[in-house]
Amino acid sequence: MANHLYDALFGRHEGSSADFLILPDGARVSHKDFSARAARFAGALVAAGLKPGDRVALQLEKSPDMLAVIAGAIRAGVVFLPLNTAYTASEVSYFMSDAGAKLLLCDGRAAAALAPVAAGCGSRLMVLNADGTGSFAGLAATAGPVPPAERGADDLSALLYTSGTTGRSKGAMMSHGNLLSNAEVLVDYWRFTDRDVLLHALPIFHTHGLFVATNVALLAGCPMVFLPKFDAGAVIRHLPQATVMMGVPTFYTRLLDDPRLTLDLVRNMRLFISGSAPLLAETHRQWQARTDHRILERYGMTETNMNTSNPYDGDRRAGTVGLPLPGVELKVCDAAGAELPGGEIGVIEVRGPNVFQGYWNMPEKTAEELRADGFFITGDLGLVDGDGYVTIVGRGKDLIISGGFNIYPKEVELALDDLPGVLESAVIGAPHPDFGEGVVAVVVPEAGADLDPQALQVALGDRIARFKQPKLIAIREGLPRNTMGKVQKNLLRDDFRDAFARSGSQGGF
User: Fold this and answer.
1) What is the DSSP letter of 12?
2) Contact at 8 Å (CB) between 199 and 245?
3) Are the CB atoms for 65 and 37 separated by under 8 Å?
4) Residue 319 resides in a domain
5) CATH number of the domain bearing residue 59
6) Which of 21, 57, 199, 480 could be bridged to 81 by S-S, CB 3.0 to 4.6 A?
7) C-beta of residue 82 within 8 angstroms of C-beta of residue 92
């Protein structure tokens, strides 16, 4: 009986005594022991009344057991919803009811708050703690393992909910084939082998840490140093035993702040990968100067996993997300869906075996964003240069229209980031009584720098056209980010919604 994803990721290792997980305290979990745990968790899901195609929601702390539950769900043919541990009970209630989840697994500390949520959805609540205790672990001990359920490439494996910054969160339906095809491409493209050791400090409720990092390691048959979260000290302690690290930009900036990051520390490393948010060109430069490694940046999203990557061999260009991956078609289109010439900015569309099946219970939204020919309208604005490298300039919703002119925030951010004393910036549009929208720049200074908004305005004078220049520059100590390091521009737009209503038209633009 074939189970498309389980057989490829876990089944092939079931009898192997080779290390799969290396834990922070030095303990090791073999593939054989992990697979046995996953089989028992699959049995617990069945004992809890779930059948193939039913949904289980997981709001758990990262641990080997959380990963084993996911493996168990795949084995049992149960569709899993990994949920950010930062989600409130109200948010979890929406995900549970929308997905029709029959079971909610949570940490014991959250059980009291989530019990009414499960009851309100007609679902069962069970506890699984990071230390392997809880009612679900107890059920697994008595239920016994079950064989893998028959599941094909087109069967649904996971529901991943989008962040919902522009409306209701949407459940992206990922099939067994979607997840496996993308991992197979990445193993080859990034040259993974069983001799690698992956340093894993990402969360596993997100595409990056689960479907990219974990699935690639499983396919390659290499062990993972499995850290519960990113901690610069812990990462530095474990770097000498690793060969690859995947991270978000925050990982790299925090490591650069630590004097223990040296050439000798990374002598065994062959690859550093960054994603989930743009990496500053300055971070690229500083990392190469300190480690003699060029970070490989790539581009993906919830609905597609990975779409592009800078090459393993060849020019890794800072500011770009590289080339379309093998098997992925990418084009840049206008609002009507017509493909634009190279070098022009438009909406990125992608097609390939990695692209999701659609949005759960949202056929109208699926039809809006997933074309009949299979191209997915990503909502990201970008361009493709003459060499085929893709550059992301922002989200479509981030486009600013001021006085009838289109302004791409990325262009203004790059100009600001290039100024002395500027660490990074975020540019948004705010309602403006004269121009429709006015450009607002939120700027973070480098350590020790004393930035003056008026001086920054003057410095931009000969760098970008006058209509693109900010009408308001605000200095802040940091930018709001989500757990994956992405700047939350929706929060900035909320903060500055009334900026021009309060202060009037700034600067006479």
Assistant:
1) G
2) yes
3) yes
4) no
5) 3.40.50.980
6) 57
7) no
| Type of residue at 335 | A
CA 351 from chain center: how many Å?
Answer: 19
What are the contacts of 454-461 at 24+ separation with CB within 8 A?
456/416, 456/419, 456/422, 457/507, 459/419, 460/415, 460/416, 460/419
3-state secondary structure 348-366: EEEECCCCCCCECCCHHHH
Boundary (domain end) residue, out of 152, 175, 208: 152
Alpha-carbon distance of 314 to 148, in angstroms, equals 41
Tokens found for residue 265: 């520390």
CB 57 within 8 A of CB 104: yes
Print the domain residue range for 36. Answer: 4-14+28-152
Per the CB < 8 A criterion, the answer to whether 200 and 225 are in contact is yes
Residue with tokens 């893998």: 148
Residue 319 neighbours by CB under 8 Å, 6+ apart? 281, 391, 414
Residue 83 lies in a domain: yes
> How much is the pLDDT for 167?
56
Residue 415 belongs to domain with CATH number: 3.30.300.30
Residue found by looking up tokens 């993974």 in the block: 192
Note the pLDDT tens digit of each residue in 41-53: 999 999 999 999 9
Q: Where are the beta strands (DSSP E) in 311-351?
A: 323-324, 329-333, 346-351
Beta bridge partners of 308: 299, 324
Distances (CA, A) of 364 to 30, 38, 92, 150, 370: 45, 37, 23, 30, 10
Contact 384, 390 (CB under 8 A): yes
Q: Give the three-state DSSP class for 322.
A: coil
pTM value is: 0.84
Sign of CA dihedral 422, 425, 427, 430: negative
The DSSP code sequence of 134-161 is SHHHHHHHHH---PPPPB-TTSEEEEEE
Q: For residue 323, is it within any domain?
A: no
* 262 occurs within a structural domain: no
E strands, 182-301, are 198-200, 224-226, 244-247, 271-274, 296-301
324/338 Cα distance (integer angstroms) = 19
CB 329 within 8 A of CB 420: no
Token pair listed for 370: 């997933």
pLDDT digits (tens, 9 = 90+) for 116-134: 999 999 999 999 999 999 9
User: How many structural domains comprise the chain?
Assistant: 2
Strand partners, 158: 80, 174
Distance of CA 9 to the CA centre of its chain: 20
Burial class (CB in 10 A: 0-12, 13-18, 19+), 333: middle
Identify the CA nearest to 277 among candidates 482, 35, 462, 111. Answer: 482
What pLDDT digit, counting tens, does each position of 288-324 carry?
Answer: 999 999 999 999 999 999 999 999 999 999 889 999 9
CB atoms within 10 A of CB 41: 29
Q: How far apart are CA 14 and CA 221, in angstroms?
A: 12
